[in-house]
Write a sequence for this structure.
């Protein structure tokens, strides 16, 4: 895997380096391989998007890096944060990382906040516990944080309860809490999925702003390619527990290599399409993570798969751009791919004009 | 993601087996090769109570009556009381609960008040009242205990109905033209019946123990033996110290049966809870 | 913004649905009264797909259910193929419902978890005793095949054994088994992954043609709505803002809210620079909606007139109507 190492090397020392991470869950049906061999770097001040459909393991991956897993989960491999190995640490020793070094924002702000605690108290809590602030200092900092996340009338909000705020505002409070101790990394797991679309862009812009101001690393986990397109520096696409393509954002959209990524992009309805445009649909379903298929995991659903794909799993290889890696034997643009594409068009399988 | 349990488990089926065995024994008691429960098997020269032996598996009581036989016959009454009570509770409470949960509005308001009254009334006082005013027959006792079960069962049925009635598949049923009756019977009941089944097993356990309590107060059935009465008969004598087996039989039978009912009820509820969650 | 205008209603000789001044109010007694739908009117022609789009609290789902009379509207009328659904007796309504069917957002809770999937699909035929049992079995098998579900598997499996996308197909099959005229889709793909969403959208287009359906498609995703609709209506806080043919609405949005909605959509293309919009604050609460034009609290172009006077629907293009005092597009015949 030296090629992957090479691609991961680029740039200054990463904040977090993940190597060969595997997360397994014991269930009654067997061992679920939710994350099955992932290599990643997270750099200070940069935004990484982890994209995939439900069941691909993206949420488990972000929690695995943070170490926020239930006791039935088992991690293998390495997660190094500022040189320290996190895999194998007890929950007790991980506690000082959570909130202070790494923070997470979750999907549903309705349930992320304590319904019986005032907003001000909830923001002040980590400040007092982790940073040992006095009550009045914590309160002042909480006020500053609310201003930072652009909540109108912050003084009044401090004394309010969660149910008195709208969804968008609650998510801002959640972000304020996550930022309170000045973490180096912010994980955002589907932070806008539960929100209205006009509020979504406000929240994403807020996260981007905070990232710049604080020079924080952000990991954005989502199924929405539109969200990552505008708000990330680099994107990693996951499928069935593995990363199947990783590239700087512009490069990914301009020069997509893996047929899965391409299919995903083409199945999204676009605003500038005509009405009743036939969408590109990927047939079938994601594989069983207990007994994944041998070879490339996407092969059973891939219209461009050939024999080799079902037998041997392709490794991550770089393109001409060493920061862009993909795992495919016959990527977009290769001779075999073009050949198959022509066959598909000839047989009338609907293929969209763009890309 | 926690490990879901595989099936209902060995313990569940063991409990069910015990319940089947004890029920069959109770039903066929008159035809089983047991000693006569009423007869005094006095042995000349030895004063009862006699200890456990090959003739009397659980010994005899102070009147030389075979404990084992009496325990099995006691099962007949105790199980009937338990089953009768919970059946009454489910039919009345369940109906009230489902109807009030489905129709809401005035039906719900009235049913809730009824259940509130039933819950607030001290069960023991009610039992004493009823048994004082009426007789102390098997049916009366069973129904008295049943009345006490109406409110808890009703509330569970109502809560369960509320949860399922707002699911889209009920709206869909209405959309395809299902009548209210059809929706209640075909859509709601199959779903509501599961938590109720679990509760009914637990409820039966409670009723059996409650009968034991009534027996201690002298309020249990006039005719026949129950486990409660048997335990009382043993406990009230000086002989208990040197002849603990007099109560041992009925106590252990009661204990095992109640344990089996509780365990099976719990497992049933857990098993179906898990399935529901993964939906 | 007022649905009280009727300018956008068309003279159709074969309208499938005509909704007039629909109002749905929740809460009674001491509970605060929320008017989820405040005077909405629209029509749907035979064979047309009307998309209704808006954010949470706009009343689009409530409108869909009010058409089905589940629960019925508190004011206004719903004419389905000329019959007033609100004025029917319960038995007449039950019968009418066979011609209007609905599919819902959560695919798995749309099916009875304790029933085998094939039985759920066959249920409508059993209720109305359509044909002999053998004929019914055939209809069900045919429809299941049409939606891409194996009838053999459906005969033994329960909903939790299927994926979200498959459950949605099963719900569609159940909705179509009575050959309805109108299919109301309430956020049917919002809970599905992107690739599965595409499958279901393609399926709905195919079935629409095959079963000659008229559709009403409710969603919050504008791109999805554009893909499947002929005409699109935008709702905000219980009122209709704008209505136009799909291509026209997206090419020349006239209402400021529509413009903001379109700009807010994250586009999967990093070349597209996000347009900064001047939208301020969050959605007002439907319990206490703003006066005049309901959008005035967040609209960059709001003035005194907007704060006091409710705008009425007026034409700004070919079949393009907007309820706004200062629309982005003024009435001129615009070629697409």
């Amino acid at each position: 895997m030296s090629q992957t190492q090479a691609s991961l090397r680029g740039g200054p020392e990463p904040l977090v380096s993940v190597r060969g991470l595997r997360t397994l869950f014991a269930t009654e049906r067997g061992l679920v391989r939710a994350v099955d061999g992932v290599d990643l770097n997270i750099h200070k001040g940069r935004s990484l998007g982890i994209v995939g459909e439900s069941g691909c393991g993206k949420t488990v991956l972000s929690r695995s890096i943070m170490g926020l897993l239930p006791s039935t989960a088992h991690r293998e491999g390495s997660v190094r944060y500022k040189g320290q190995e996190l895999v194998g640490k007890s929950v007790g020793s991980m506690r000082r990382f959570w909130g202070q070094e790494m923070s997470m924002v979750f999907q549903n702000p309705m349930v992320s906040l304590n319904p019986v605690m005032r907003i001000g108290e909830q923001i002040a809590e980590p400040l007092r516990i982790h940073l040992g602030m006095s009550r009045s200092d914590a309160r002042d900092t909480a006020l500053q944080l609310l201003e930072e996340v652009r909540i109108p009338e912050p003084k009044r909000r401090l004394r309010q309860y969660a149910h008195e705020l709208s969804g968008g505002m609650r998510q801002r409070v959640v972000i304020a809490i996550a930022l309170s101790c000045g973490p180096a990394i912010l994980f955002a797991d589907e932070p806008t999925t539960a929100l209205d679309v006009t509020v979504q862009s406000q929240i994403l812009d807020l996260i981007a702003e905070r990232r710049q101001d604080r020079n924080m690393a952000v990991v954005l986990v989502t199924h929405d390619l539109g969200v990552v397109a505008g708000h990330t520096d680099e994107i990693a696409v996951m499928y069935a527990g593995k990363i199947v393509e990783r590239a700087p954002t512009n490069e990914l959209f301009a020069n997509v290599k893996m047929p899965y990524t391409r299919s995903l992009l083409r199945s999204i309805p676009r605003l500038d399409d005509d009405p009743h445009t036939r969408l590109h649909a990927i047939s079938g379903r994601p594989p069983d993570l207990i007994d994944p298929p041998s070879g490339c995991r996407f092969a059973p659903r891939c219209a461009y798969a050939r024999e080799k794909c079902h037998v041997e799993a392709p490794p991550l290889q770089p393109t001409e751009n060493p920061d862009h890696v993909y795992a495919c034997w016959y990527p977009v643009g290769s001779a075999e791919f073009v050949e198959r594409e022509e066959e598909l068009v000839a047989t009338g399988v609907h293929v969209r004009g763009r890309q | 993601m926690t490990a879901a349990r595989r099936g209902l488990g060995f313990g569940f089926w063991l409990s069910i087996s015990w319940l089947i065995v004890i029920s069959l024994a109770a039903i066929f008691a008159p035809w089983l090769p047991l000693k006569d429960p009423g007869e005094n098997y006095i042995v000349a020269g030895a004063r009862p109570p006699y200890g456990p032996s090959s003739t009397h598996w659980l010994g005899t009581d102070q009147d030389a009556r075979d404990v084992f036989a009496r325990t099995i016959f006691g099962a007949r009454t105790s199980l009937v009381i338990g089953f009768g009570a919970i059946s009454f509770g489910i039919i009345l409470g369940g109906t009230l609960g489902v109807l009030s949960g489905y129709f809401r509005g005035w039906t719900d308001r009235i049913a809730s008040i009824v259940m509130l009254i039933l819950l607030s009334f001290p069960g023991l006082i009610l039992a004493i009242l009823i048994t004082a005013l009426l007789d102390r027959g098997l049916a009366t006792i069973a129904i008295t205990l049943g009345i006490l079960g109406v409110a808890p069962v009703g509330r569970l049925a109502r809560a369960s109905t509320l949860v399922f009635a707002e699911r889209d598949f009920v709206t869909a049923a209405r959309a395809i033209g299902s009548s209210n009756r059809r929706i209640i019977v075909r859509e709601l009941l199959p779903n509501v019946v599961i938590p109720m089944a679990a509760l009914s097993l637990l409820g039966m356990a409670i009723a059996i123990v409650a009968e034991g309590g009534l027996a201690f107060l002298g309020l249990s059935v006039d005719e026949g033996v129950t486990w409660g009465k048997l335990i009382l008969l043993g406990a009230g004598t000086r002989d208990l110290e040197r002849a603990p087996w007099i109560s041992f039989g009925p106590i252990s039978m009661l204990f095992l049966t109640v344990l089996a009912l509780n365990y099976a009820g719990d497992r049933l509820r857990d098993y179906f809870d898990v399935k529901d969650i993964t939906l | 913004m007022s649905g009280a205008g009727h300018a956008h209603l068309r003279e159709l000789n074969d309208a499938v649905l005509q909704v007039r001044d629909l109002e749905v109010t929740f809460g009674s007694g001491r509970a605060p009264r929320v008017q989820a739908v405040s005077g909405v009117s629209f029509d749907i022609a035979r064979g047309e797909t009307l998309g209704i789009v808006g954010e949470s609290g706009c009343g689009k789902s409530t409108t869909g259910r009010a058409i089905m009379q589940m629960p019925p509207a508190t004011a206004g009328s719903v004419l389905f193929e000329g019959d007033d659904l609100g004025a029917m007796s319960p038995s007449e309504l039950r019968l009418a419902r066979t011609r209007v069917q609905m599919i819902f957002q959560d695919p798995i809770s749309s099916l009875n978890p304790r029933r085998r999937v094939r039985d759920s699909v066959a249920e409508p035929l059993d209720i109305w005793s359509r044909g002999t049992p053998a004929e019914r079995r055939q209809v069900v098998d045919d429809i299941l095949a049409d939606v891409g579900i194996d009838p053999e598997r459906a005969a033994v499996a329960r909903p939790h054994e299927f994926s979200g996308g498959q459950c949605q197909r099963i719900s569609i099959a159940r909705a179509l088994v009575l050959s309805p005229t109108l299919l109301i889709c309430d956020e049917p793909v919002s809970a599905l992954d992107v690739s599965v969403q595409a499958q279901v959208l393609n399926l709905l287009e195919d079935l629409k043609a095959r079963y000659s359906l008229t559709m009403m498609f409710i969603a919050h995703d504008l791109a999805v709505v554009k893909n499947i609709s002929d005409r699109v209506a935008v709702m905000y806080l219980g009122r209709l803002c704008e209505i136009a043919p799909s291509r026209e609405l997206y090419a020349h949005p006239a209402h400021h809210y529509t413009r903001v909605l379109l700009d807010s959509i994250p586009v999967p293309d990093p070349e597209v620079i996000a347009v900064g919009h001047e939208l301020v604050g969050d959605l007002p609460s439907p319990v206490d909606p703003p006066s005049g034009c309901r959008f005035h609290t967040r609209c960059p172009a709001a003035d005194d007139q907007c704060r006091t006077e409710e705008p009425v629907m007026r034409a700004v293009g070919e079949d393009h109507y907007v309820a706004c005092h200062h629309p982005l597009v003024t009435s001129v015949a615009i070629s697409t």
